[in-house]
Every structure is written in C-alpha cells, then in structure tokens.
Specification:
The protein is an alpha+beta fold and about 130 residues long. It has one domain: Quinone Oxidoreductase, Chain A, domain 1, CATH 3.90.180.10. The protein is built from 4 helices and 5 strands. The strands form 2 sheets. Strands 1-2-5 form a 3-stranded antiparallel sheet, with no helix packed on it. A two-stranded antiparallel ribbon has the order 3-4. Helix 3 runs antiparallel to helix 4.
Length: about 130
C-alpha cells in the first residue's frame, strides 16, 4: 500500500507554494477530495464521495517517486526517523483530529488527554494539520 509516505520534494509542479525543493514532507492516507461538498467544507473530508486515498486510488509510497497534492501533504521535521514519523500520517492524524471532535465536557479527566496527541503528534510536524 505505502499509504504513509515520508520523503523529500524532488520537483515542484506549477502553482506549488507550500513547499520547496529538497524539503522533507509527509503524504498521508487521504490524498484528494472535491473540497466543496458538505463533508469537505465541514471538516470531514475523509467522508467525501470523491475522496481518493494514497496507496489505494493514488500510487503509494513503495514507488521510487510519487506525486502529491500540496493541500494533502505536510512539512515534516528532519529530527525524527521516517519509521517514527510515518505512522503519524495515518493513525496519528486520526487520533489528533478526533480530539477536536470530542467535547472535553463529555469525558472525565482520566479519559480526556488533549495534550497527549497535540504534544506527541504536532511535535513531529512543523505546523498543525488542520
């Protein structure tokens, strides 16, 4: 599958403004959406009827090279090995994003640990996902 890609930018397509050549990036499972349906505009892009997924609909990370949409890629710190940061592009994203959906008032303190994912996931990235 190769649905959690860690690599560096080899070349930029026209109009790419978020990255530069040689920059370390991560390409997650979610690789493309319509960006205008109710799900996309409501922060639930993974439910978009037109969603395309890396390693399933879009060629994955087992290739020597791949192409990624800049809107679905993330700048990554060079401080961590690929094997440590790659899982954050799938399971880490899900956990981090899920905490934004859960109301802290519906859970007691032992169940709700808002800083766990924020500190352990966002630490690997140079900026927040969403």
């Amino acid at each position: 599958m190769g649905h959690q890609i860690v690599g560096s930018v080899e070349r930029l397509g026209s109009g790419v403004i978020r990255f530069h050549s040689g920059q370390r990036v991560g390409v997650p499972w979610l690789g493309k959406t319509c960006q205008h349906c109710t799900y996309c505009t409501g922060g639930q892009e993974n439910l978009c009827a037109e969603a395309r997924f890396t390693g399933y609909h879009i060629d994955g990370g087992f290739a020597e090279y791949t192409v990624a949409n800049q809107q679905f890629a993330f700048p990554l710190s060079k401080d961590y090995p690929a094997a440590q940061v790659a899982p954050l592009l799938c399971a880490g994203l899900i956990g981090y994003r899920s905490l934004g959906v859960v109301s802290p008032f519906s859970l007691n303190e032992s169940q709700y640990r808002p800083n766990f994912f924020k500190n352990n996931v966002a630490e690997f990235l140079e900026k927040d996902y969403y």
